[in-house]
């Protein structure tokens, strides 16, 4: 299918904001994560502004590598995504509802049922962000000493997704007839068992639920390592990325398109949404001041851990925040692409650990007035490397309010943005319905 000719936006929603110290900002709501009315107001704001999807990230643990600095963050306090989005479904009518769920600490049948249920509840607006889990504390919560190895995680993920899709297809679209006169609830010849026997999973099926309204909820993915990108090319429909430069974004899209084609798929059936962390103010100077204020609110222990969480097993506790980042060896069983990107950034610009952490906590290339932010969004869009952005607002609700009220109208005025059309998330993304 052809790629969209206008920008799409998803929102990566955290209760008080995506910046590690956003909850401390004077205009943030520190109680937002557990306030369902706050989530509902935010969802309606984004929907009314024309956002395509609302995305909830997740790990099945306290969110971090070590516990000693987490008491200064919001990363130990967040709602389970599918539960939250099911609650938001009747509060919204158009925006897609995308939940993160790991293949490492779930079973295919359970997730197939949960996402099919969500798709029915919200009328065909559900999406699944497929992750394999990298936070060490997750494994310990499920009786494991560590995660599956990097290659094994993606092999399991590929089989897991195949099983889930098979379960979603347990019934044809016209299987459930609910005919009172004949007493037939469904046609037996339109239902099938799965009887999957694979290397990692054995699942009989069928699913105890009608086929989802979309056929399959939309699959989101964020793999950037070679194994992760290969997995994304095989199953992903919307790919989240985190490039450190425009050149990296262009190169990622080139490689992804080639791998999608090699996997027998049409590259036009895949959307790429890099992360965007905008700070919008009346002037560029005021926005830069907000960025500096947020940086000053990050405790040194949190800064250190912010970088360490993306490197793996290295101990940063004795490193001077104001010295250049030391050399590290090969990647461990963590997010290899993110580690490599941070190392390249630190070495290329000779950044100290503090500077790297501050850069990582808020991307300063999207900070400014509404026009400045729109200019930078347009510049990336014009490369042809992206289809939209996954927007993480540094603190809420103010930055979401300013982005929707000020930046989107500028982009719309340039003919780059318009609200999506279509009843389902697939239709809004311009993606076909699985047969």
Low-confidence stretches: none
| Contiguous helical run count | 14
Backbone shape: globular
Query: Which CATH architecture would you pick?
Result: Alpha-Beta Barrel
Label the structural class: alpha/beta
Structural write-up:
It holds the Pfam family Bac_luciferase. GO terms for molecular function: monooxygenase activity; oxidoreductase activity, acting on paired donors, with incorporation or reduction of molecular oxygen. This is Monooxygenase. FMN binds at residues 58, 100, 150, 154, 225. InterPro entries: Diverse_substr_monoxygenases (IPR051260), Luciferase-like_dom (IPR011251), Luciferase-like_sf (IPR036661), NTA_MOA (IPR016215). By secondary structure, the chain is of the alpha/beta class. It has a single domain, classed as Alpha-Beta Barrel (TIM Barrel), CATH 3.20.20. Helix content is 38%, strand content 13%. It has helices at residues 36-49, 81-88, 108-121, 136-140, 150-168, 226-235, 246-262, 284-296, 300-308, 336-349, 353-361, 370-381, 398-413, 425-429, and strands spanning 8-12, 53-56, 96-102, 126-131, 176-179, 184-186, 196-197, 202-203, 218-221, 238-241, 271-276, 279-280, 367-368, 388-391. An eight-stranded parallel barrel has the order 1-2-3-4-9-10-11-14. A hairpin with a 4-residue loop joins strand 5 and strand 6 (184-186). The longest helix has 19 residues, at 150-168. It is globular, with a radius of gyration of 22 Å. The protein starts with 7 loop residues before the first strand and ends in a 6-residue tail after the last helix. The relative contact order is 0.16. The model has no long low-confidence stretch (mean pLDDT 91).
């Amino acid at each position: 299918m052809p790629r969209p000719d206008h920008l799409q936006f998803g929102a990566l929603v955290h209760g008080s904001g995506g910046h590690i110290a956003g909850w401390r900002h004077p205009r943030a709501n520190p109680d937002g994560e557990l306030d369902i009315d706050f989530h509902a107001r935010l969802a309606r704001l984004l929907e009314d502004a024309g956002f395509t999807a609302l995305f909830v990230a997740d790990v099945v643990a306290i969110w971090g590598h070590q516990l000693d600095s987490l008491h200064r963050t919001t990363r130990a306090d967040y709602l389970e995504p599918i539960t939250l989005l099911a609650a938001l479904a009747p509060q919204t009518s158009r925006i897609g509802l995308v939940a993160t769920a790991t293949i490492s600490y779930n079973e295919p049948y359970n997730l197939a049922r949960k996402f099919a249920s969500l798709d029915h509840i919200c009328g065909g607006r559900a999406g699944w962000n497929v992750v394999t889990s990298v936070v060490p504390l997750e494994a310990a919560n499920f009786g494991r000493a560590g995660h599956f190895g990097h290659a094994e995680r993606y092999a399991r993920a590929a089989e897991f997704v195949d099983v889930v899709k098979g379960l979603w297809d347990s019934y044809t679209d016209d299987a459930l007839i609910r005919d009172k006169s004949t007493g037939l609830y469904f046609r037996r010849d339109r239902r099938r068992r799965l009887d999957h026997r694979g290397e990692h999973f054995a699942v009989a099926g069928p699913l105890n639920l009608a086929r989802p309204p979309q056929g399959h909820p939309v699959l989101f993915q964020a793999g950037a390592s070679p194994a992760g990108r290969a997995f994304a090319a095989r199953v992903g429909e919307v790919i989240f990325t985190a490039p450190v430069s425009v050149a990296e974004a262009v190169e990622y899209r080139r490689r992804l398109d080639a791998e999608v084609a090699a996997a027998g798929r049409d590259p036009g059936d895949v959307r790429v949404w890099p992360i965007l962390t905008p700070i919008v103010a009346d002037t560029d100077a005021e926005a830069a001041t907000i960025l500096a204020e947020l940086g000053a609110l990050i405790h040194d222990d949190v800064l250190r851990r912010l970088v360490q969480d993306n490197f793996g097993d290295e101990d940063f506790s004795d490193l001077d925040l104001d010295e250049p980042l030391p050399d590290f060896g090969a990647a461990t069983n963590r997010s290899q692409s993110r580690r490599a990107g941070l190392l390249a950034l630190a070495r290329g610009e000779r950044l100290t650990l503090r500077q790297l952490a501050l850069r990582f906590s808020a991307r300063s290339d999207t900070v400014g007035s509404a026009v400045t932010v729109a200019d930078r969004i347009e510049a990336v869009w014009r490369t042809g490397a992206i289809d939209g952005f996954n927007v993480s607002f540094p603190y809420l609700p103010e930055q979401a309010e300013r982005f929707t009220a000020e930046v989107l109208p500028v982009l719309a005025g340039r003919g780059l943005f318009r609200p999506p059309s279509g009843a389902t998330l697939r239709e809004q993304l311009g993606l076909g319905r699985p047969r």
